[in-house]
């Protein structure tokens, strides 16, 4: 009979009677450790990376014009602004020839240079610096994985008494459950996503854009809301990231909670009571099977003697007693030989162990 059929054929009245007359107790201890890592920063940075990349690849530029009055021999280029300035400042004229040639003493020199040193670009450079520090701080705090570890220990004790029998059971069951939250996205694991962010920030910091702004003044909060920052989509997203970093730099990446519980659950106790009944019932069935098996052997032996030979009852009893004693002696001898072999093995093992231990000490 398989276990399913066995359980289905159990007598429900016997089960109820057994449980009612059983004195049992159960204690469940739970140790729960939860670690919650806030990985929203990963989502936020991944979302903003394309916008920052657009700005860094195509930075805003501005033409800077610098004007200096220099001696004529140092003037490199004569522009319309130079002539106009000289006409308005005749004190800078050294002499005028008869043919109308003007010899200036000094001349306005105009330099025009393209630069990316704008407030908006310095804002992006400072944002990249802040982003690098933010990510480093997050990774230095702890592992980014979130998980729950639950350790349960169940202790069950029960005693059941009948007229001529007493059954006792002591059960201790321990279980561990580990659950790790999957933070993968688009087929990439949490570790791969973090590694990608590191690589991108490293590329940003080594870009020509950032290097050209190396000596520029850093931007600090509050951010000046220029038209570009408020209206240009890439800068709007950059400002959103700036504000996110400032707000989330305050709280820690992870929170770890440890909780211990002790409870007594009657529903679970009833299931253990049922298991206790099944164990005791199995013992009774085994005993019954053994008795039936022995009866069958004796019955066959007697029938063989009765039907195959001419032997009286007294002689048969004497023969049975003698053979039983001889068989018992043989069984005892075999068991003693087994015990001796086992003891010899243990002694030999102990001797070798002590020898090896002495060698190790030297």
Description:
- It is built from eleven helices and eight strands.
- By secondary structure, it is an alpha+beta fold.
- Among the domains are: 54 residues, no CATH class; 80 residues.
- A hairpin with a 5-residue loop joins strand 3 and strand 4.
- About 2% of the residues have low confidence.
Determine the strand fraction and express it as a percent band: 15-25%
The helicity comes to 40-55%
Oligomer: single chain
- Tell the overall outline: rod-shaped
Q: Which blocks of ≥5 consecutive residues have pLDDT under 50?
A: 286-293
Number of helices: 11
What is the averaged pLDDT score? 80
What structural class is derived from the secondary structure elements? alpha+beta
What is the radius of gyration computed over CA atoms, rounded to a whole number of angstroms? 47 Å
Taking the alpha carbons of the first and last residues, their distance comes to 61 Å
What profile does the largest beta sheet have? Answer: 4 strands, antiparallel
* Physical arrangement of strands within the biggest beta sheet: 7-6-1-8
SSE order in H/E notation?
HHEHEHEEEHEEHHHHEHH
The number of E-state strands comes to 8
């Amino acid at each position: 009979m398989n276990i399913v059929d066995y359980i289905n054929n159990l007598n429900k009245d016997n089960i109820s009677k057994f449980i009612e007359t059983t004195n049992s107790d159960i204690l469940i201890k739970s140790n729960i450790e939860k670690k919650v890592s806030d990985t929203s920063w990963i989502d936020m940075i991944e979302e903003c990376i394309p916008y920052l990349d657009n700005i860094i690849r195509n930075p805003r530029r501005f033409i800077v014009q610098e004007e200096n009055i220099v001696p004529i021999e140092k003037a490199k280029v004569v522009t319309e602004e130079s002539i106009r300035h000289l006409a308005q400042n005749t004190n800078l004229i050294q002499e005028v020839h008869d043919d109308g040639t003007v010899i200036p003493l000094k001349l306005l020199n105009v330099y025009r240079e393209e630069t990316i040193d704008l407030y908006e670009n310095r804002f992006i450079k400072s944002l990249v610096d802040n982003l690098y520090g933010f990510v480093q701080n997050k990774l230095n705090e702890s592992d980014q994985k979130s998980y729950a570890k639950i350790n349960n220990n169940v202790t069950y004790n029960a005693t059941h008494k009948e007229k001529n029998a007493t059954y006792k059971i002591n059960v201790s069951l321990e279980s561990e459950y580990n659950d790790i939250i999957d933070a993968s996205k688009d087929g990439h694991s949490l570790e791969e996503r973090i590694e990608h962010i590191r690589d991108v920030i490293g590329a940003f910091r080594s870009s020509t854009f950032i290097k050209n702004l190396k000596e520029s003044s850093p931007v600090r909060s509050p951010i000046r809301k220029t038209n570009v920052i408020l209206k240009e989509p890439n800068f709007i997203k950059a400002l959103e990231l700036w504000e996110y970093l400032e707000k989330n730099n305050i709280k820690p990446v992870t929170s770890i909670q440890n909780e211990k519980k002790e409870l007594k659950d009657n529903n679970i106790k009833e299931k253990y009571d049922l298991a206790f009944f099944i164990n005791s019932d199995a013992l009774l069935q085994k005993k019954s099977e053994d008795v039936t098996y022995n009866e069958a052997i004796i019955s066959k032996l007697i029938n063989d003697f009765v039907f195959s030979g001419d032997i009286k009852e007294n002689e048969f009893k004497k023969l049975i007693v003698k053979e039983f004693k001889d068989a018992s002696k043989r069984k005892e001898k075999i068991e003693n030989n087994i015990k001796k072999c086992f003891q010899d093995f243990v002694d030999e093992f102990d001797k070798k162990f002590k020898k090896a231990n002495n060698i190790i000490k030297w």
